[in-house]
Amino acid sequence: MIIIGEKLNGSVPSVKEAIKARNEQFIYDLAVRQAKAGAHYLDVCAGTNPEDEADTLVWMMDIVQDAVKVPLCIDSPNVRVIAKVFKNAKIPGIINSVSAEGEKCEVIFPLIEGTDWKVIALTCDNAGIPADSEKRTEITRSIVEKALKHSISPDRIFVDPLVTALSTDNTSLLKFIETLRYVKEIYPTIKVTSGLSNISFGMPLRKIINQNFLALALYNGMDSAIMDPLNRDLRATILACEALLGRDRLCRKWFDAYRKKLIG
Ligand code: THG
Predict the structure, then answer these.
(1) What is the mean pLDDT of residues 139-155?
(2) Quick one: pLDDT band at residue 131, thresholds 50, 70, 90?
(3) What is the pLDDT of residues 64-111, one digit of tens each?
């Protein structure tokens, strides 16, 4: 399971404060803690102020890259901002994200052509976010086709089907799994990722729903999650599922995490 640590996000109130106060130590510590907890990538998102988004992102990226060797996942709804800050990354990471909307692919794909950068592809287009698997698959296909024109192979693409809230669509997880199956049937090496918190929107005890979404999605082939790596329950869920699914030889990772007090 590829863990993308989500904590460095300007929409989280404590991070927003730290950004405002240019509190380097806070950002530094959050990067170190997530890396120690096993994050494979660190998402950096400046938040909601479009005026200084690029400056804030560069400030965050510099601190994170001083703190840890873990590659970045550059998160912005604005691909122009991503293009602007991209050269400040020291090693290849993940672009978060493109979609079939507007000219997102046209801005990002030439930028990462011939590099080791990966990219998250949201399954939405100018008409919005479809919930049905067929349309999500069709959008994935159109994005992969554009990527292939820039020699970006499916194994560098993380499809994010933008899970809907279970409280408004009780087939949300089932449709997610169906989409995953369809896209992997066409592109066996493509990766599927998801944020964990959308599923439980509007429900009580959200963390329990998120944790079980993670377990079921993992069993059904989800490769990656954008999540809080500091959450011990989520960490334990991943390790337990991996052990139970025969992906942890001699349960070594489980024992190791227990010994290091990362779980329990
Ligand atoms: N898909 C893609 N990118 C995304 C999302 C997605 N980027 C943003 C978002 N969704 C994922 N990031 C966050 C960041 C923080 C929180 C939720 C989603 C959050 N954090 C709380 C905190 O840090 O205090 C609590 C976390 C917890 O305890 O679970 O709420 O879907 N491609």
Answers:
(1) 98
(2) confident
(3) 999 999 999 999 999 999 999 999 999 999 999 999 999 999 999 999
Q: Whose CA is nearest to atom 13 of ligand 1?
A: 6
In short, whether 96's Cβ falls inside 6 Å of ligand 1 is yes
The average pLDDT across 253-260 equals: 96
Binding site membership of 226 for ligand 1 (Cβ less than 6 Å): yes
H or E stretch covering 35: helix 24-36
Nearest residue to 26 (alpha-carbon basis) of 35, 16, 36 = 16
Q: What is the tally of helices (H) and strands (E) in the chain?
A: 10, 8
Phi (first) and psi of residue 21, to 5 degrees? -85, 0
Distance from Cα 250 to the centre of ligand 1, integer Å: 33
Do the beta carbons of residue 237 and residue 211 sit within 8 Å? yes
Q: What domains are defined for the chain?
A: 2-259 (3.20.20.20)
